[in-house]
Amino acid sequence: MPDPASPHHAPSNHPPVATGGLGVLLVNLGTPDAATPPAVRRYLAEFLSDPRVVEIPAIAWKPILHGIVLRTRPAKSAHAYAQVWTEGGSPLAAITGAQARALQARLGAAVTVDWAMRYGNPSIPAKLQAMKDEGCDRVLVAPLYPQYSGATTASVMDRLGDALRTMRWQPAIRTLPPYHDDPAYIAALAQDICAQVAVLDFVPEVLLLSYHGMPERTLQLGDPYHCQCRKTSRLLAERLRDGLPRLRIETSFQSRFGRARWLEPATETVLANEARAGVRRIAIAAPGFSADCVETLEELAIRGREVFEAAGGERLGVLACLNDRSAGMEMLETLVRRELSGWL
Ligand SMILES: C=CC1=C(C)c2cc3[nH]c(cc4nc(cc5[nH]c(cc1n2)c(C)c5CCC(=O)O)C(CCC(=O)O)=C4C)c(C)c3C=C
Ligand SMILES: [Fe+2]
Ligand SMILES: [Fe+2]
Predict the structure, then answer these.
(1) 207 and 231 inside one domain
(2) 323 closest CA partner among 87, 103, 80, 107
(3) Ligand 1 pocket test target in 212, 294, 297 with most atoms within 8 Å of CB
(4) How big is the CA angle at 254 (ends 94 and 143), to the nearest 5 degrees?
(5) How far does the centroid of ligand 2 lie from the alpha carbon of residue 194, in Å?
(6) I need a labelling partner for 308 at 20 to 30 A (CA). Which of 139, 171, 238, 249 fits?
């Protein structure tokens, strides 16, 4: 029987305590809550105010952001989002949620799997607190960016730091390292790309690997992103040579933003130049995106196709990202189990 006078007896106003749980928090970039200009504006305002994303001194950037970008871009971007919006909302959010559910099923009840977005909803602080409230005192945070960049991976860590700063009782944290050259990632991509190319109703002459771009200056400043993209392409090409020996493999960078010089070659330039040089059939994959999103479904599959066809191309096969299909989920399970070693 507990002795009420004992110093070890909990006072009657002691808050409830849950401990002993293990959490995995998948994180992707973020997306607007609706495909409307006001929702896109709120999302872009948060995203493009991050000094990790736009590395221009705030005193110069804020007037451009608020005076020009946030007045003009939301309507244009909302139109792009509206073309790819699903019943489950933004594709990026719907697919990231499906990935979390699939990983939960693979890891079982010993782990709580959830997902969050760096910008917009659900936020990293809200999901981290929810995990802690549920009793997770150890959490693996997994940014779903295979290639590291300051604008993506490091920015997730910044936000995680903000979240931890507000917590009295913090969970212990591990983070998933970038996996651009991990054999499990390269194998998943190779298997998934081969399977998708095999069911196209045409034989592509070129496989274009399109990665999200970054300002070229980030390369000079020491960001490893460009090298990691190139290495993924090299390893993937080596892996694909057996299955698709006659396919020429090229790399490009998409989604240029702003006036500065970006990593080259630009995806749309490559699509147009290939078509002008006589290539009629291209397959395009986006290995740097864990989930299909406006950048793949609208920029590649709608605008990219227009560019290719206008230059004389005939067939553009836009391959799906790994999403929540088995090749990608098996890879994610392998990476996550490795990082949980000693915890699980
Ligand atoms: C995969 C890695 C990504 C890098 C690197 C990246 C850098 C980067 N992005 C912008 C500006 C925009 N990106 C936008 C969308 C977007 N970007 C990524 C991923 C990376 N970005 C994803 C997954 C998405 C899709 C989000 C979705 O809701 O589907 C957008 C918004 C869309 C638009 O208005 O065009 C902008 C803007 C910069 C400036 C940058 C490098 C520093
Ligand atoms: Fe982006
Ligand atoms: Fe490089």
Answers:
(1) yes
(2) 103
(3) 212
(4) 45
(5) 27
(6) 238
Identify the sign of the CA torsion 44, 49, 53, 58: positive
The residue whose C-alpha atom lies closest to atom 22 belonging to ligand 1 is 29
Return the pLDDT at 233: 98
| DSSP character at residue 215 | B
| Domain assignment present for 56 | yes
Which range of residues forms the domain containing residue 157? 21-179+327-339
Kindly state whether residues 173 and 189 are assigned to the same domain: no
Q: What is the CATH number of the domain that holds 169?
A: 3.40.50.1400
Q: Which helix (H) or strand (E) holds 27?
A: strand 21-30
**165 CA distance to ligand 1 middle (Å):** 27
In one-letter notation, the amino acid at residue 158 is D
Backbone φ, ψ for residue 141 (5° rounding): -95, 125
pLDDT digits (tens, 9 = 90+) for 294-334: 999 999 999 999 999 999 999 999 999 999 999 999 999 99
Token digits for 129? 């607190």
Please determine, for residue 4, whether its predicted confidence score (pLDDT) is greater than 60.
no
Q: Which backbone phi and psi does 22 adopt, to 5 degrees?
A: -125, 130
